[in-house]
Design goal:
With about 350 residues, this protein is mostly helical. The protein has 11 helices and no strands. The radius of gyration is 27 Å and the shape is globular.
C-alpha cells in the first residue's frame, strides 16, 4: 500500500511538472510573440543604462554638468559608435545589391559561359557529350530565369515596401530607446533601489540575472563569431576580385549561424566550379575560407560560451532549430532565449515547491 501510494505521489509530481512546463512554454511563446515587440525598446534602454551608468555618474560628478545632458550625450555617442560602422556596411550592401540587379543580364551571360566551360572540362574527363550537358544546363537556366521574372522580382518589390515600413519602425524604436535610456540614467540609483525592494525581486530578480548571464553569453558569442567569419569572408572575397564581397561576405557569415547550413554550402560548390574553370588561385582561397570559418566557429564557440552557459550544445542547436520553425529568421536568437527563459522559470517554480515541501 505504501509502495502504491509512493508511486501515485511520484506520478502526480511528474504530471504536475509536465503541466508546469507546458504552461510556462505557452506563456513564454506568447510573451515572445506579442509582448516582446512592445517592451523591446525598454529592454534595450535598460541594457544601455547598465552599460553607461558608471561612466555617466563619473562624468557628471567631474564636469558638474546636469545628469540629463551627460546621459543624453553618452547614449548618443554609444549609438553612433555602434550604428555608424553598421550603417556603412548596410549602405555598401545596398549599393552592391542594386548593382547586382542592374547587371543581372550580363551576369546571366557570364553564368552561361561558365557553365559551357565547366561542361567542356567534364566532357574531357568523362567522355560525355558536351552538347547534352550544355542543353540540360540551358533548360535549367531558362526555367530559373522565368521563375525569377515572375516570382522573385515582384517579391523583391513587395519586400522593398516592407523594408521601408520596417525602417520607419526601426527609427521609432531608436527614438523611444534613447529617451527611455536617458530617463533611466537620470534616476538610475533610485530605480535600482526600488526594484530591489519590490516583492518581485526575490523571485524574478534571480531569473532575470540568470537570463542576462546566459543570454548575454550566447548573444556575445554569436555576434563575435558572426563578425569574425563575415570579416574573414569579406577579406577573402576581395582577394578573389568579387565585386560583391561585402554583401556576399555578410550573407555567408549570417548563414554560418544557421544550423545545418554553414559556409561549406557556398564555398565548396564555388571551389569545385573554379577547379573546373582552371582558376586555381580562387579555388584555393575558397578552400582556405571554408577551413578558417569552420575553425573559427569550432574553436571560438566553446571558449566564448564556456561553462557560463550551463547548457549542452545539442540543446542549443535544438532550440535554434525550433526557434527558426516558430519565429522565423529571428528564431536564431529568440529560440535559445526562449529555451533559457522556460528553463529558468521552471527551475525556479519547482525549486520553490521543493523548499515548501521540505
Amino acid at each position: 500500500m505504501t509502495h502504491t501510494d509512493g508511486m501515485t505521489g511520484k506520478t502526480r509530481q511528474l504530471i504536475k511538472k509536465i503541466i508546469y512546463l507546458a504552461g510556462i512554454t505557452v506563456a513564454v511563446y506568447l510573451g515572445m510573440r506579442f509582448a516582446l515587440p512592445i517592451v523591446i525598446p525598454f529592454l534595450l534602454a535598460i541594457l544601455i543604462a547598465r552599460i553607461l551608468c558608471k561612466p555617466v555618474a563619473f562624468l557628471s560628478e567631474k564636469t558638474k554638468l546636469p545628469k540629463g545632458i551627460v546621459s543624453t550625450a553618452a547614449v548618443l555617442l554609444l549609438l553612433a559608435v555602434i550604428f555608424l560602422p553598421m550603417g556603412y556596411l548596410v549602405y555598401k550592401g545596398i549599393c552592391e545589391l542594386a548593382s547586382l540587379i542592374t547587371n543581372y543580364p550580363a551576369l546571366f551571360g557570364k553564368a552561361d559561359t561558365l557553365w559551357c566551360s565547366c561542361c567542356e572540362r567534364v566532357a574531357e574527363i568523362t567522355g560525355m557529350k558536351t552538347e547534352t550537358m550544355v542543353q540540360w544546363g540551358k533548360n535549367c537556366a531558362a526555367y530559373v530565369s522565368s521563375q525569377a521574372e515572375t516570382k522573385l522580382i515582384p517579391a523583391m518589390m513587395n519586400g522593398s515596401l516592407a523594408s521601408l515600413r520596417g525602417l520607419a519602425a526601426f527609427f521609432g524604436i531608436c527614438i523611444v530607446t534613447v529617451v527611455a535610456a536617458v530617463l533611466i540614467l537620470c534616476d538610475y540609483d533610485n530605480l535600482v533601489q526600488r526594484w530591489r525592494k519590490s516583492s518581485f525581486y526575490s523571485w524574478g530578480g534571480r531569473i532575470f540575472q540568470n537570463m542576462c548571464h546566459a543570454g548575454g553569453t550566447y548573444l556575445k558569442a554569436q555576434l563575435i563569431i558572426l563578425a569574425l567569419i563575415s570579416g574573414v569572408c569579406i577579406a577573402g572575397l576581395f582577394l578573389t576580385g568579387n565585386s560583391y564581397a561585402i554583401l556576399a561576405g555578410v550573407l555567408i557569415g549570417m548563414s554560418d549561424a544557421l544550423p545545418f547550413i554553414g559556409t561549406g554550402l557556398v564555398f565548396i560548390p564555388w571551389l569545385i566550379i573554379d577547379l573546373f574553370r582552371g582558376k586555381y588561385f580562387a579555388a584555393v582561397i575558397y578552400g582556405i575560407l571554408f577551413i578558417l570559418s569552420t575553425f573559427i566557429r569550432e574553436f571560438m564557440e566553446p571558449r566564448l560560451m564556456g561553462r557560463g552557459l550551463g547548457v549542452h550544445p545539442l540543446a542549443v542547436i535544438i532550440s535554434i532549430y525550433a526557434g527558426l520553425k516558430i519565429y522565423g529568421t529571428a528564431g536564431v536568437i529568440l529560440g535559445p532565449l526562449s529555451g533559457f527563459l522556460i528553463w529558468e522559470i521552471y527551475r525556479s517554480i519547482c525549486g520553490r515547491e521543493e523548499k515548501e515541501i521540505t
